[in-house]
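Hi P.,

Sorry for the delay on this. The queue was packed all week, but I finally got your sequence through. Input first:
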Amino acid sequence: MTISELEETLKEEARLFLSRARGLRGPHTEDLFARRVYIGPEDVHVENYPRRPLAVFNPGAVLEGEVVHLFPRLVFEYYSYASAIGHATLPLKDLLAGRIPKPLPVRILLYPTELFEAVRGCEDARAHRREEGYALFYTGVGKLGDARNTDSKEVFTAILSLAEFDEAFQLKRKAPIRIGLSGEETGLALYLPTKNATFLEGDHVLLRPSLSGLPDLCWRGRLDPKTLKAYDLRPVLAPEAFEYKVGWSTNALRLPDGTYLVAYHGILRHDLSYRHGFMRLSPEGRPLGLSHYLLAPQGLAECYGDRPLTLYGNGLLLHGEELVFVGGVGDYAIGVFTAPLEEVLKRVVPL
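Then the structure:
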């Protein structure tokens, strides 16, 4: 099998899924979430870089005890929109109450050092606590595949990548993720524009590869931890007729019964807004339940920004019986939103 045949195999899988998996959702939006706090670039101080960010947004989030770790995307200029990923900590109760240190200390953890990040840097972390430290799925925007054939910075690839840190947040490894049919290193693999990944149980993951000529849809698969090859990909959620595409919005949150809850986003055709619903999944990523939209941009602060009508999810936490959604607002700020877990789960209809 050639690389082109490998890609065509995935495309055929997507085509079959799109032909039978639409019609599960309507465009109805029922916003359940309370707005807790916004954190803008003027509210942070970057301790290990001598410039002030112009945008602080799309943060991954990890809850350890009563402390939340935030991993925001930082942009310092609009000329090339090159991004880095930082790290900040604070008590969750203070975050939910809006008691943010002024300024909030942030340290840059990831910044462009490799070819696959060399154009627009490191974007949109999805953060996970692992036994050996921390793991961040993120998007590296640089040169891979066909993009290698030109030195123009207008030609680049957005590639799913993984960064691993030890307990002290020292970087151990970062590398792009390849797509294959099996996890064996001897098999074929290719780099596809891919985003929106999160770990599930063991080596099971959610991810969103982009296939030319087809709309983006949500997939599940497995990830070999040594080779960083994603394989055994299966589509899970398709865009509806009223959407341009769908993607995973947050890390997958393990619920007490062993299932996982994850937010998804759709981009609406009628206004280009990002709106979010929720899906319940088995530990292997099989879909168990699905909601309509339960969170959407509202008001001036959320509808007007560097990217209008954009709420972009990254972090999903559970605080007692309260679901905490942490995301970007308009590509300029961080927003924190909460809703009762029970009310969200009531709207996740079994599949």
